[in-house]
């Protein structure tokens, strides 16, 4: 068994699609009136419209891994991703590399984290 997709419920699928595709940078693979499917590597992220405000206290987080996390952070920040902090400090270290991250939230409070490995200082 494997995880196929993650659904983020949204009260505004158009605004969520704009944020996760144009601002964060995930590719759209399919769109229907009440759904947008985004490329997430081996897992699809599905934005699903609901007819009420999102009330999510789950602290679910979409973790994005980048091969060049520093360049990706800069690009995403320039596109308007509201990062809560700069990259770092290291979350963990392994084989001369540090895993660093920066957190953000979309307009409905869904959490995102950009992560990547960099050479240890």
Descriptive notes:
- It is a single chain.
- The protein is an alpha/beta fold and 121 residues long.
- The protein has one domain (5-119): Roll (2,3-Dihydroxybiphenyl 1,2-Dioxygenase, domain 1).
- Helix content is 18%, strand content 39%.
- The chain contains 2 helices and 8 strands; from the N terminus they run E-H-E-E-E-E-H-E-E-E.
- It has helices at 13-23, 69-79, and strands spanning 5-10, 28-32, 35-38, 44-49, 61-65, 92-94, 97-105, 111-119.
- Strands 1-4-3-2 form a 4-stranded mixed sheet, with helices on one face. It has a 4-stranded mixed sheet with strand order 5-8-7-6, with helices on one face.
- A hairpin with a 5-residue loop joins strand 3 and strand 4 (44-49).
- It is globular.
- The termini are far apart.
Topology of helices and strands:
Blueprint: E1 5-10, H1 13-23, E2 28-32, E3 35-38, E4 44-49, E5 61-65, H2 69-79, E6 92-94, E7 97-105, E8 111-119
In short:
By secondary structure, the protein is an alpha/beta fold.
- Work out the helix count: 2
Low-pLDDT regions: none
**CATH level-3 fold name:** 2,3-Dihydroxybiphenyl 1,2-Dioxygenase, domain 1
CATH architecture: Roll
Primary descriptors:
about 120 residues, alpha/beta, 2,3-Dihydroxybiphenyl 1,2-Dioxygenase, domain 1, 4-stranded mixed β-sheet, about 20% helix
